[in-house]
Design goal:
It is built from nine helices and 19 strands. It is of the alpha/beta class and 355 residues long. The chain is globular, with a radius of gyration of 21 Å. The termini are far apart. It has helices at 19-28, 40-49, 59-63, 80-89, 104-117, 131-141, 167-183, 284-297, 306-324, and strands spanning 10-13, 32-36, 54-56, 70-73, 93-97, 121-124, 148-158, 187-195, 205-212, 217-223, 225-237, 241-245, 253-256, 259-263, 266-270, 274-276, 330-332, 338-341, 344-345.
Length: 355
């Protein structure tokens, strides 16, 4: 597709498993200018599929190109901080795939750097743009579910096993981002347990518990050692319950008029069938891409900005610290910083035992 007038020109760093989806979206939107990757074979495939798109191995040539306004980073998590910093220092807007970084201090540095340079820093918490999640947030805000009580999520599959980060950092950012968005608060207490079965010191399975000052609780179960794919979030309200099942091809969000009523002092379960919610039909990644372009032009602000990404990073850090201490809870202050590890004061930065 030819470029539309005033459409920001975008570079995508990374033409691998997930990067190709960014490439497809920005190409269809007429915004893709260049794809950069260190693998020439991957670039050859991009050139064959998108003849009009420039390819580069040398990142410095991309950063020196004044026509490029925004850069999407779809590379391994361990590279996010270094690449995002280079992009920001080059004066370009950046969308970083999750997680923002693998260290809270590095994430904080990126947020401050982007603010001081006056550029957009956006994080790829894709599911915050999912139509079912947006509708779920509306149901909570409108009070249709009643008072929010409990959330639990499961994100399970067989692979893709990482070597740079554990399952907590690979899978859980999505669920943490949604939970923080739905609760609109940071947890005050975080704990996590798990096991490493394939590679020493790299957890394959974790269960993370979050406790909020409002009384809401949540837990997140993630694993890449599971016989089938499951991506489900259950939200329990005082009036109704909702289930977001992203593996389903239809009825991804179902509301249940179920709960427990007290009759003459006795708890009576109220059971009714679920009613599917009508949700908009759009691809979350495309909506996220549109938001990035609109943020560059100044027509809107992204909800998944650097500050949002940093909040998710702080929860991940708290969970990682607990995981390293076999599940001993970490206490978190209102900003999301860990202040206590099992009763002992926390040190700055991420635990040396993490990852």
């Amino acid at each position: 597709m030819k470029s539309q007038l005033n459409t920001p020109r975008i570079a995508v760093l990374g033409a691998g498993y997930w990067g190709v989806n960014h490439i497809r979206n920005y190409s269809e939107m007429g915004a893709l200018e260049v794809v950069c990757d260190t693998n020439q074979a991957s670039l050859n495939e991009i050139s064959a599929r998108y003849p009009g798109v420039r390819t580069e191995i040398d990142l410095s040539r991309v950063l020196a190109d004044d026509s490029i306004e925004g850069v999407v980073i779809a590379t391994p998590a361990v590279t996010h901080y270094s690449l995002a910093r280079q992009v920001i220092e080059a004066g370009k807007h950046v969308l970083v795939e999750k997680p923002l970084a693998l260290d809270v201090d590095e994430g904080h540095c990126l947020v401050e750097l982007a603010d001081s340079c006056g550029v957009i820093l956006m994080v790829g918490h894709l599911l915050e743009y999912h139509p079912a999640v947006l509708r779920l947030a509306d149901l909570i805000k409108s009070g249709e579910l009643g008072e929010l009580r409990y959330i639990y999520s499961s994100r399970l599959n067989l692979g893709k096993v990482r070597r740079e980060e554990n399952i907590l950092w690979s899978f859980a950012p999505h669920d943490i981002a949604i939970i923080l968005r739905l609760t609109e608060e940071m947890p005050v207490r975080v704990s996590a347990t798990g096991g490493a079965y394939l590679q020493p010191e790299i957890a394959d399975v974790t269960v993370t518990s979050l406790e909020f000052g409002s009384g809401i609780r949540a837990h997140i179960f993630v694993s890449w050692l599971h016989p089938y794919k499951e991506q489900r979030m259950v939200v329990i309200g005082s009036k109704r319950m909702a289930v977001f099942d992203d593996v389903r091809t239809d009825h991804k969000l179902v509301v249940y008029d179920q709960g427990v009523d007290f009759v003459d002092g006795r708890p009576i379960a109220r059971k009714n069938g679920g009613i599917p919610e009508t949700i908009a039909a759009f691809e979350p990644l495309k909506r996220q891409s549109e938001v990035f372009l609109e943020s560059i032009t100044g027509s809107r602000k992204p909800i998944t900005d650097g500050h949002s990404g940093l909040r998710v990073l702080r929860v991940l850090d708290a969970a990682e610290r607990s995981l390293a201490l076999a599940g001993i809870p970490t206490l978190v202050d209102p900003e999301g910083d860990v202040v206590s590890l099992g009763g002992a004061p926390a040190t700055a930065g991420r635990s040396s035992e993490s990852l």
